[in-house]
């Protein structure tokens, strides 16, 4: 989205916004209709669909090196997200 950098660092970063919003929805106990409205509200507030902020889409075409740092026991953002970031 226009940031020009030679390198990057991802510290306990999520691999996508959908996962963050889904985990938050589950933690809040939102029913399916409320979850859909929550996703739609985030889309309208940011102007970007949550699905568009996924590492597999964002990293497409980027060549910068990234240092990925993540605690394997992170209870908020799964370690699998760090693995996805590293692969991307």
**How many beta strands in the DSSP annotation?**
2
Q: What is the succession of H and E elements?
A: EHHHEH
Overall mean confidence score, pLDDT = 91
Continuous helix count: 4
Q: Given the C-alpha coordinates, what overall shape results? A: flat
Helix content: 40-55%
Structure explained in plain terms:
The chain is α+β, with helices and mostly antiparallel strands and about 90 residues long. Helices cover about 45% and strands about 10% of the residues. The protein has four helices and two strands; from the N terminus they run βαααβα. A two-stranded parallel ribbon has the order 1-2. Helix 1 crosses helix 2. The longest helix is centred in the middle third of the chain and has 15 residues, at about 30-45. The two termini are about 15 Å apart.
Can you summarize this structure?
The protein is 45% helix and 11% strand. With 88 residues, it is an alpha+beta fold.
Give the tags:
88 residues; alpha+beta; flat
Task: Compile the SSE list and pairings.
Blueprint: E1 7-11, H1 17-28, H2 32-46, H3 55-58, E2 65-69, H4 79-87
Parallel strand pairs: 1-2
């Amino acid at each position: 989205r226009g940031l020009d950098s030679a390198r990057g660092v991802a510290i306990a970063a999520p691999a996508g916004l959908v996962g963050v919003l889904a985990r938050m929805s589950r933690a809040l106990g939102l029913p399916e209709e409320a979850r859909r409205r929550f996703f739609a509200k985030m889309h309208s507030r940011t102007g970007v669909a949550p699905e568009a902020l996924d590492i597999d889409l964002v990293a497409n075409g980027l060549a910068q090196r990234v240092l990925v740092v993540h605690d394997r026991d992170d209870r908020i953002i799964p370690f699998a997200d760090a693995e996805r970031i590293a692969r991307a």
